[in-house]
Amino acid sequence: MSLRILFIGDIVGKSGRAALARHLPDLRRRWALDFVVVNGENAAGGFGITEAICEDFFGHGADCITLGNHAFDQREALVFIERQPRLIRPANYPQGTPGRGANLFETQSGARVLVVNLMGRIFMDPLDDPFASAEREISACPLGAGCDAAIIDMHAETTSEKYAMGHFLDGRASLVVGTHTHAPTADAQIFPGGTAYQSDAGMTGDYDSVIGMNKNEPLVRFTRRISSARFEPAEGEATLCGVAIETGSDGLARKISMVRTGGRLQECLPDFWENG
Ligand SMILES: [Fe+2]
Ligand SMILES: [Fe+2]
User: Fold this and answer.
1) Distance (Å) of CA 188 to CA 39, 42, 219, 255
2) Coil, strand, or helix at residue 4?
3) Which one from 70, 155, 180, 182 is the annotated catalytic residue?
4) 29-64 pLDDT, tens digit each
5) Residue 225's pLDDT is what?
6) DSSP letter string over 191-224?
7) What is the mean pLDDT of residues 248-258?
8) Phi and psi for 196 in degrees, rounded to 5?
């Protein structure tokens, strides 16, 4: 069984949500996608996600929404995440945190897809060990035996921690993709063991900004060290950013491509689906 999977990076604010609504239904059809994961940690005004936004994303064609350090910025998420199994937060939050850090999904064709959300610890909140969490989730549901594809969203600041996670899971996951830094990296590849990898998917937001936020306030804070206003998402047209993979019958990756469409960044679409 071969699966076509699209992962979309952090949706930032209204312009990010508009880009998802504009592009995802079309991409889902055009590329005959089996499974779509969207990182939604910045969807509500840049900070967290609401239940209504979750429902919109599922309506546009997302199968699973992942989160990160902004998971619970909207307090309602602490409650509705318990009744929304398609919304997951980092698995290495302390025991007792609402929601779940991984879930197993079934595609329309009956394939089982494991999604795990993890958060790095370098320059971030001191959570539990993400490598131990990854080990626990992957060994509970191994590729080939427990699932037909495994997707890991490694929400982290440093590229080194993301690469380490990619190699740690090489041969045991279909895709390890980074989120959180809000700029796409040009290192999409398939590791020797068959795991697809990209250090950061990039945000789905307005790139005429400071990582998705209106650039005025960040510039004030960088130059004067004094805050003068709240951070607000930039409102220009967003670029939808992500990574596309196709798996083989063993659940490992056969193809990978960066995805960028709309807005200011140079377009990049998977040749193997556009022309095949
Ligand atoms: Fe983010
Ligand atoms: Fe983040």
Assistant:
1) 18, 23, 31, 10
2) strand
3) 70
4) 999 999 999 999 999 999 999 999 999 999 999 999
5) 85
6) -TTS-EEES----BB-SSSBTTB-SHHHHHHHHH
7) 98
8) -75, 145
Q: Output the CA 146–ligand 2 centroid distance in Å.
A: 29
> 248: CA distance to ligand 1 center in Å?
30
The count of other CB atoms within 10 Å of the CB of residue 109 is 10
* Interatomic CA distance for residues 50 and 114, integer angstroms: 23
Q: 202's torsion region: left (phi>0), alpha (psi -120 to 50) or beta?
A: left
pTM over 0.85: yes
What is the Cα–Cα distance from 38 to 206, expressed in whole angstroms? 17
Cα distances (Å, whole numbers) of residue 232 to 23, 29, 42, 186, 220:
23, 33, 11, 28, 13
Residue-wise pLDDT for 70-83, tens only, equals 999 999 999 999 99
Verify whether residue 70 is a known catalytic residue: yes
Phi (first) and psi of residue 39, to 5 degrees: -85, 125
Q: How far is the CA of 159 from the centre of ligand 2 (A)?
A: 14
Angle (CA) 252-253-259 rounded to 5° is 150
Centre of ligand 1 to C-alpha 10, Å, is 5
Strand order in the sheet with 4-8: 64-66, 35-39, 4-8, 240-247, 253-261
Q: Which ligand sits nearest to residue 120's alpha carbon? A: 2
